[in-house]
Structures are given as structure tokens and as C-alpha cells.
Amino acid sequence: MMDPSTNMPIVMLKDVASETVMPIWVGIFEANAIANEIEKMPALRPMTHDLTRNLIRHLNARLERVVITEIKDDTFHAVLCLNQGGEPVMIDARPSDAIALALRADCPIFVAEQVMQSAKLSTSGTTEGPTAEQLRGWLEGLNDEDLGHYKM
């Protein structure tokens, strides 16, 4: 979705076990890469995240998961957790790239608990701030102009 105040794309991550939602602001190109994979829109030529997925496969490795590990100076950090020949390999990544790659590799996306606690938008009503219902209402109230030409 697009942030109506900054006009920047936002990826909304939702905890599968609760109503907690965490926004991550991303660049336009990364938002496009994520949206294209969600919508299964094939590119004429491999895009950067497709190339990365292909490199991982051809190097006999497998992307097992991505983890958003920390927020440092208002910037999210992530790691790619690969397995190559039975050996774990951790690679530093931007969260937007990690998410785009996770979608292509069909692997889970994890968020460190301390990141989720400091960046979450709402929970089932146990903390101050908007509830999941209020957030849902805000999201449903956005129109095409608010969202721009991205469908996420």
C-alpha cells in the first residue's frame, strides 16, 4: 500500500499468531518487485530478485527463511538465512529485498520479537494506539488515489 502522508510504499507484515501488524516503508522499485511476485506477474527478463533466487539455486543453496533482525537509527535490518551443503549461511540484506526474495523462494518471513514490539502498529487491544479494527478501517478507507498504481 502507499502511505498517504509521504506517498511512499509500505509493506504491512502481520503476525500469523495475533492481530499485530508491522509496517515497513520500502522503495518504489522494491515495492514493485514485491507486488509483481504477489500478483504472479512474470517479467520478460529476470529481475534482480529473480537473478538472486536463481544464483542461490545454482550455487546449490536454499533460502530457508528471512529474518528482520533489528531497527537501528530508524532503519530496518534483515538477514537471509541460507543452507548450502548442510552449512548455514547468513547474508545481510535490506528487508525489502529479503521480502521480495522470500516470496520468490516461498520461504517464511520472521521478525525478531524486539523489532515487532518497537515497530508494531496495533495488537488485539492490549497496548495504546490503534486497534486492529481501527487499522483495518483505515486500510479499507484508502482509495485508488491513496494507493497509487500499486496493488499490494
Give the topology:
Elements: E1 10-14, E2 21-25, H1 28-38, H2 48-58, E3 61-72, E4 75-84, E5 87-93, H3 95-105, E6 109-111, H4 113-119, H5 132-141, H6 144-147
Parallel strand pairs: 3-6
Antiparallel strand pairs: 1-2, 3-4, 4-5
Helix pairs in contact: 1-3, 2-3
Brief overview, please?
36% of the residues lie in helices and 28% in strands.
Structure characterization notes:
With about 150 residues, the protein is of the alpha+beta class. The protein has a single domain (about 10-145), classed as Roll (Bifunctional nuclease domain). The chain is about 35% helix and about 30% strand. It has 6 helices and 6 strands. The strands form 2 sheets. Strands 5-4-3-6 form a 4-stranded mixed β-sheet. It has a two-stranded antiparallel sheet with strand order 1-2. A hairpin with a 2-residue loop joins strand 3 and strand 4. Helix 1 (about 30-40) packs parallel to helix 3 and helix 2 (about 50-60) crosses helix 3. The longest helix has 11 residues, at about 30-40. The radius of gyration is 16 Å and the shape is globular. Mean pLDDT is about 85; it is low at about 120-130 and about 145-150.
Q: Which superfamily, in CATH terms, is the homologous superfamily?
A: Bifunctional nuclease domain
Compressed to H and E, one letter per element, the order equals: EEHHEEEHEHHH
Q: What characterizes the major β-sheet?
A: 4 strands, mixed
Helix content class: 25-40%
Number of helices: 6
Please state the second-level CATH architecture: Roll
Summed up, the domain count is 1
